[in-house]
Amino acid sequence: MHDDQVDVTTEVVATLIQEQFPQWRGKAIRLVSSTGTVNAIFRIGNGLSARFPLRLADPGETLAVLEQEAEASAELAQVSRFPAPEPVALGKPGAGFPMPWSVQTWVPGTVAFDADPSGSDAFAEDLAAFIAALRRAETRGRRFSGQGRGGVLAHHDDWMAECFEQSERLLDVPRLRQAWGHFRELPRTSADVMSHGDLIPGNVLVAGDRLSGVLDTGSFGPADPALDLVSVWHLLESGPRDVFRWTLGCDDLEWERGKAWAFQQAMGVVWYYVESNPTMSRMGRRTLDRIQASME
User: Which residues, including other chains, have CB under 8 Å from residue 54's CB and lie 6 or more apart?
Assistant: First the structure.
C-alpha cells in the first residue's frame, strides 16, 4: 500500500517472540486479514495481538509513538463500556524487522467492513453511547496538537488540493471542490473533547446488529467534538444516522462539521488506495455518496 512499506511474516514474528517474549513461545501465530493501513496485525494464541508498523521510520521515533499509543489505549479502555484493546508489551527491532512493535489484548468480534451494521438503529444508539462516554472523559487541560484531522478544517486545504488533482479521473471533482468550499468555512464554537480519532468500519467490531468493541485506540485524545462524527457517514444509512444524532444530541453546526471531517477523510482514501486497498477506496466513495445525498 505504501512505497516505504516493510514486510513482516509469521516466521519473523515467531522469531521475535521467541527471542523477546519466551513466555509466549509455542503459541499459534496467525496473520490477521485486515484493511488496516498503518500496522500488520498478527494474533498470538487466543488472547493477544501483535502490531507491526507498515511504514519504515526511525526506530526511536517509532518507539515514542508506540509508547504514546499505549498510554492512550489504556486511557480509552478505562472509560469505554465497550471492549477495547489494552497494552501488554512493547517489542524491540530484531529478526529482520527494523522497528519497535507492540502487543495488545485481543478483542473478539467482526469488523464492520464484514458485518455491515449500516441499517441498525440499535448499533447507531451504541455508537452514540460510545462517543458520549469518550466525551465525558477529562481532557486534563490537553488540547489538539496534531497535524491530522481534529483541529482546523481549513488547515487541510493543501491536502485537499492534492486529493482533487489525484481524483480527476475517479470522481466528480468540480462538485466536490464546491462542497469543500462550504465545509472549510464552517466555524468552530466548541472546546476540544476526548475522541477516538479514526472511527472507520475497520476499527469497529460488530456482533449481531450491536457494537461489540472498538479497535485502533492509540489516537485517543483531545480534538474537535465533531471529529468522531465521521463514523456516522462511514457506517450508517440515513435512518440510523437520525437515531444517532438524536441520541448524541448534535446541533446543526456540529453535525455539519462532522460531515466535513468525513468528507476530508473520504477524499483521501478514494484515490490513495484505489489499487492497493480497494475496500478502503470503496468506503471513501460510499461515504462521499452519502454526504452528497444529504446535501441535495
Answer: 1, 2, 5, 6, 37, 38, 39, 40
pLDDT tens by residue, 182-192: 999 999 999 99
Contact 54, 101 (CB under 8 A): no
Give me the helices (H) in 224-277, please. 230-235, 238-248, 252-272
Task: Assess contact for 248 and 199: CB atoms under 8 A.
Answer: no
**199 in a domain, yes or no?**
yes
Tell me the sheet residues that pair with 214.
Answer: 204
> What is residue 36's three-state secondary structure?
coil
In the chain, the N- to C-terminal Cα span, in Å, equals: 34
| Contact residues for 164 (Cβ-Cβ < 8 A; gap 6+) | 173, 176, 177, 180, 267
**pLDDT reported for residue 1:** 52
pLDDT band, residue 33 (cuts 50/70/90): confident
> CA 261 → CA 5, 179, 257, 264, distances in Å?
27, 12, 6, 5
Whether 103 and 88 have beta carbons less than 8 Å apart is answered as: yes
pTM over cut 0.90? yes
Count of domains forming the chain: 2
> In Å, what is the CA distance from 194 to each residue of 49, 227, 256?
25, 10, 19
CATH at 172:
3.90.1200.10
Report CA Rg, the chain: 19
130 and 271 inside one domain: yes
